[in-house]
Amino acid sequence: MTARCGVALAVALCVLPAGQEGGAAASLPRAGRGSELLNEPFTGSSIADPGFQPLNSACLTGASGPPPAGASTTGPCTDPGQTAGPVPAPGVTPGWLQLTDSGNFHKGGLLYNRPLPGNGGLQVTFEQYQYGGTGADGIGFFLVDGSTDLTSAGGDGGSLGYAQRNLDPGVDGGYLGIGLDAYGNFVNDGEQRGLNCPADQKSPVNGDAQVPNTVALRGPGQGIDGYCFLAATITPDANNQSGYTTTLPGALRFPGADPLQAKRTVRLTVSPEPLPLVTVEIDFNDGKGFRTVLSYRMKVPAPPTYKFGFSGSTGGGTDVHLIRGLTGSSVDPLSTLNLVKTVASSPPGGGTEYAVGDTVDYRFLVTNTSADTLHDVAVTDPDITNIQCPSTTLGPMGTPTASMECTGSYVITGADANAGQHVNTATANGRSTGGANVPSNESSAAVDVAKPDHHLAITKTSDATGPVAPGDTVHYTVTVRNAGTVTADAATITDDLAGVLDDASYNGDADSGGVGTVTYDEPKLTWTGDLAPGATATITYSVTVDDPVTGDGTLTNTVVGPDGSNCPAGGTDPDCGTDVPTVPPTTPPTTPPTTPPTTPPTAPPSGEPTTAPPTTAPPTTAPPTATTTPEPPTGGPSAGPSATASPGGKPLAATGFDYPAMWLALAASLLVGLGVLTRVWTKRPGRH
Question: Where is this region: Disordered (predicted)?
């Protein structure tokens, strides 16, 4: 059997057939896997938890007198507006929480004005009973932001205590409303429900037509705005005036007078994701157990804590509306001591941003999820020194004393303004009955802070006019000027020296001239100070170039200032940085090549034959005899150079032969011959 899925005006909706669970909802953790947060059966004569606040005709059928001191103010069902129709007998236990009797135009509600943690998701289970009348209107269950002071429900009638109705406001801080709607009005946008909602969150149901016996979801709202239609157990049906019919596999109400026959158990799961998956399951008391009837992914982030409420109403049509067996738990298990920190105030100037000097109020929800009593419970936050808690003891899980809210406050500083927000983290600690320390999880909260109306003009320079040599000292100057119109509180700049320290050493001499403070945490220099409009801070320091230079040969560094300065992170203003080259290292002179030998080697290299290669000996004969030339005529001029005496005294004939040149030619020939022989020898087989 497959799921039947219908789409109405782009609203995601998938209704599963009776007896079948699947998809995302089937994988959700079931009751008992998370941490217990609340357990109130409503069957006794009073409600111990004072967080439960009754509205209008709501009463406790098991009560026989006024509630005891310190308990919920929910009283007995004895007033004339609480006894019409087949209501349970007053003062008889086990009883019920009665929202309305079967009288016309009655309404009643019960609010839980104590927050439940949402950091592990939330699962709420309860029994609802609608019976004994003509089938109107229905029961609503809603979740609101836990920071809301929940003192009243929303519009009655078809709005089921959640949404607006004819300009009557909806519930404060509304996040999610679930209509268990016997009559069928909660699903439509009649009576101005869903006012000012976008087109894709308008109900697909025609006008104010009803779709009886439906479960519908409506989203966040405040006052007369929002509470938009999200999804419903409906499918198109042209035979109905509304154009739709219900897909529920069972009836939400019982037409007879026996409340036990009207029992329907509802389980609502809100997953712990930032955009939670909301799943509604119902056990129709027919032996088939829980069946997933609706699943929807929220488009608005969940609040960190929740409060909740029930509402029932009648009009021209009627029913008795009862509740029993309420439990609440997380979806994911929580820490034994669970902490949720939330912001409990709004910026005093309106808008969404705090300003310097504004006070932020915080709340710290501390919850015991163990069966043991915890002692010496305290909350700590490094930024908040005035945390106050109503008690130091937390009772066992699920009891009225298992949780408490502590409070504290913080004043926004100039540093927060420069950062644009303030974020801080709190923790809690307690002690078990046996004395063991019980720490909580960490919990953080953030608020946006308006950035100051100032502009920091930053300039960085060095005294280097060219490449610097090993051993040289380079002096840097950073100037910071407030060019804005208001004081820059706790302005901060950083100068990262990582690109300098590979070639130089910091001299530890940073100074700001008494304006602000400058610190060094290798490799970064940080200056922080207050600057009035027009004021300037000057920061100086120096480095000494290494000898020898071992880095990349350039001293490179850039100043980074806050957003709004000319040197933000990732900026490109050349005034924010310097590049100082170093002198390249000296290169030793190159040795000239040696003159090749004029004689062949006396022995071959190792491994070669020892027989010397053949050589050609220089000639041993005397130079050729000069040719005799005829003597010139007597008294005539000489035909050549004058005769030169021979070594023996005999004149040599003038031949025109240049003996020095001859010997130079012979020497050159000898060298060439030697070179040829050397090449021949070196090219012998086996040589490379």
Answer: 63-92, 545-648
